[in-house]
Amino acid sequence: MPNYSTDSNTAINENFALTQIQSYWFAQHQAYQRSSITLVGSRGWQTALLKATANNLVGWPSDICWLNHQTNRQSLRHQLGQTLTANQAGLVIDLKSGIDIESVAIATGLLPGGGVCCWLMPAEPSDLAQATHTSTHPLANLLSFPWQTEHLAPAFETWVRDLVSDPQHSLVIYEDKTLHPSPNTTQLTYPVLVPQPAQNSSLSHSHPDLTEEQAQLLKHMLDQLQHNTQVNQPAPLVLTGERGRGKSTLLGHLINRLFVHQPYKDSADKDYAIALCSARPDQHQQAWLTLTSPHQARVTRWAPDTLINEQPRLDLLIIDEAAYLPWPQLQTLIGRYPACIISSTESGYEGSGQAWQQHLRPWLNHHYPNWQGYQLAQPLRWQANDPLEHLVGLLSGHTRKINQSARPNPDCAKLDLNRLSWQCVTPQALSHTQRAQVFALLTDSHYQTRPRDWQLLCSAPNLQLALIWQGTQLTGALWAILEGPLPDWGPHRRLQGHLVTQKLRQHHQTPELYSGRYARCTRIAIANPYRHQGLGKQLVAYWQSHPTNSSIDSFTVSFGATPALWRFWSDCGFHTLHLGVQPDAASGRCNLMMMTPPKATNLAKAYQQIQDWFKAQWPALQHEYHPLSHDLVSNAEQQAWQFIWHTQPDWQSHPWQKISNSQRQHALKDYAQGLRPYEAISGLLIDWFKQQPEAKWQWPEAALWQWKAQGWDWSRTRQAWTLQPGQQPLGRKGLEGLLKTRLLRSLTD
């Protein structure tokens, strides 16, 4: 714990405060619940009281983790992850330095039943608000230029203060309500408190280290693995549950059983090969620690990318915290090792929204119809109805869940449009209950929705919401960011936010776009029973036409490319200006950027130039990068894309000769000087090379250009270059350097 100095004049009544803490802590400890204690007052008083508590209460946690803006998440996981007993587990959260809700969720998730969480709350609300005015605030790097932390709205901090100081969630002690200490205060002693097991654990007699629920699931999963082996139909098993339910522990016991009995070996002399895999080693550490020592020596531990690259032989792959993996990576692992167990937390306090299963379940239904799902509901790390779990859930925005997979109710699926109300507002104009409904709908509709998004939704100054209500029930939501204008500080300067305009500036050198005002849609969702009725397009049209947005020059959107989404935004009046060549880490889809025709004349000219350029560049993107052909996109989607790009009159490929010679020459010089990326002008480079006299093909670099003209990617080109006589191995940057040098020399000859 940090060593804060204490004002000797600070009045602390140890008898009064310690009695409250001791009584509450003892009761929580006996029930195997975690204690949530809020100290409201000055820093000197809070520090002195914590010190007095540690000195006077025997059994008080000896290993306290202090959580503030300087806490590193990795060290947080390590420090609390090494705490194996409730008596050692303590957490202090300093609210005055600003709250990072994701760090709080991680830290409290590692705190076992019987542990202690102390919230340090300043006495004056203004002191808590000042925490937002620092460069170390967790949202500082998420705000679009020119917004700073001092522009953040106080809604989230107010929400935190109200929740943490609510007696329903914490023991709350106020400095100004304590009595002055007695001059004859003596050292207090209390009996050593020993944490009791969870009252509803119902430990299994056959498996004394497992609950009845865990033991039953263990048997069902072992039987299913045996059945899959006997019928020679490997299929995934999916184990889900909220955090603290003992999923990793169950996996460890399952591995122990498999090694002891080994009923699934093909032959007596073949060892059963099992691997543990997760995004970070600490995510499957509990499963590893549950293994007996001999079994630890037989289980291999893999990072996902290494496992994909090396492709070892496995009889069973266990993927823990699977929702934390990028979807394409998870899909590749399952496809390669269908005899697998996928375990994950259901709601994403570490970065994955609840919607990961919206990708997983339909995909499994299609490829592995005999897959099986299992769920752990009973808390193991703490007792059921733990107040700290409920409190942190509220702070993270998880006030309720929407069952998006439920079948639509025929009585309510068809909406009466006359009963709907429409709204375009800032998030701060909504009540907290309304904001919570917005966040719940977006969480269940998008693959990655983090607790920090909830914090941003409550606080950021340049956000806008377009909403559809049916009475008090939210039916649709569109989340937009207001951006621009921007100062043009050169092509190499990158400012926070403004995704579309800065990407287009980088690829096309069109600083004119910086003078415009834009509204960028980041997410849109319609409640499940009311989808496919045109509400999404009506919501976009309402958002665009609302008087609040009369000064907006153009509306933009950026999303993972799919035919359905492209058609949706195209029908809304948006046009494609950019397609990324690298799949998004979470969704595995390439980024597609679209924009409506701008109002201002200078913006419209730049917009048309970019659109014409993209039409000419598209065939090269499609041929060389195959941006839509990765594993996530099905054959049907591929055919849909081909139909869209080749039959839409607006997207017939334009020869590069339709682009003026001056524009082409300028673009080539920009690339040679490092002002434009290769993927922005690859088609022009190939076209330019084909126009060169054959005499110039004697250049040493000519082979590179010939390979690229055939659609080779950089990896294949680099390998071919290395095999040429007398050529040194070069990376992509080295090869591009050769091309740029020759190109610049040719353009200046």
Which descriptors apply to this entry?
749 residues, alpha/beta, Rossmann fold, Aminopeptidase, 7-stranded mixed sheet, 6-stranded parallel sheet, 27 helices, 18 strands, disordered N terminus, acyltransferase, Acyl_CoA_acyltransferase, tRNA binding
Q: Can you summarize the main beta sheet?
A: 7 strands, mixed
The CATH class of the largest domain is identified as Alpha Beta
Distance, first to last CA: 68 Å
CATH third-tier fold name of the largest domain: Aminopeptidase
The helical percent reads 25-40%
Provide a count of the helices: 27
What's the number of domains? 4
Provide the CATH architecture of the largest domain.
3-Layer(aba) Sandwich
Catalogue the unreliable spans: 1-12, 82-87, 179-201, 401-412
Report the structural category: alpha/beta
Strand runs, count: 18
Note the overall shape: globular
DSSP strand (E) fraction? 5-15%
Calculate Rg over CA atoms: 30 Å
CATH superfamily of the largest domain: Gcn5-related N-acetyltransferase (GNAT)
Q: What is the mean predicted local confidence, pLDDT? A: 81
Question: Short description, anyone?
Answer:
By secondary structure, the chain is an alpha/beta fold. Helix 4 (101-109) runs antiparallel to helix 14, helix 21 crosses helix 24 (678-690) and helix 23 crosses helix 24 (678-690).
